[in-house]
Amino acid sequence: MGFRNEQLRWQLARGIIQALHLERLASRYSRTTVMAVFNLINGSLSIALVAFVALVTQEAFIFPSLGATAFILFYVPMAQPASPRNTLCGHLIGALMGLLSLYIFGLQGEASAFLTGVDLPRVGAAALSLGLTSCLMVILRVAHPPAGATALIVSLGLMPNPAQLPILMAGVGLLLAHAFVMNRLAGIPYPLWSAGTEGPGLQAMAARD
Q: Could you tell me which InterPro entries the record lists for this protein (predicted)?
């Protein structure tokens, strides 16, 4: 599995290189170097895109857990946690469980823990939000590790307003749109919704390398 992921990551970087007619770089530098630069560029561009939309609209389109999501989308694009289904559902579950935990512990109108410090209700909200998020992602089979950070962002009071939920999900959608374009440009069959398991398509891609 590790070897196959390595092959897919290299094909992704190589596909972009070929699309941009930069094949000479691939012949001069190691795979690790090319892939590192590829992730540098795409990680920066994806977050810059979301942050720019946040700047223009002055809305909270950008939040910390998107950084971890961006890394997964461009480093292991064909893994289940990187699929649009897992990414969208995971962050949605995390945000909802964060909001639920705020209401359970009576913190919906309180200032962020980063301003007031952590008290016992906040400890309970943070613990419950992450526990519920992890539980539901397993039950629904939509594992996306960065969603755990989204749950904590909300339950710690950084995004406590339910009206911010559509904006949060729009930020995730923008990131996914960028990942879809770049992965498809590179020749990786990034899914429209759910990634398949280790099927013939992935095996064939690895065999072609």
A: HPP (IPR007065), TM_HPP (IPR058581)
Number of H helices, E strands in the chain: 10, 0
Q: Which tokens is 21 given?
A: 């007619």
- Which residues lie below 8 Å from residue 72, measured CB to CB, with a gap of 6+? 79, 81, 82, 87, 144, 145, 146
**Signed CA dihedral, 73, 127, 165, 110: sign only:** negative
> Which secondary structure element, helix H or strand E, spans residue 1, and what is its range?
none
Q: Which of 146, 130, 70 is nearest to 96 (CA)?
A: 130
The confidence score (pLDDT) of residue 207 equals 35
pLDDT bucket at 134, cuts 50 / 70 / 90: very high
- The number of domains in the chain is 1
Q: Structure tokens of 116? A: 């007031």
In the block, tokens 């339910």 appear at: 162
How far does the chain reach from its first CA to its final CA, in angstroms?
Answer: 15
The domain of 43 spans: 2-208
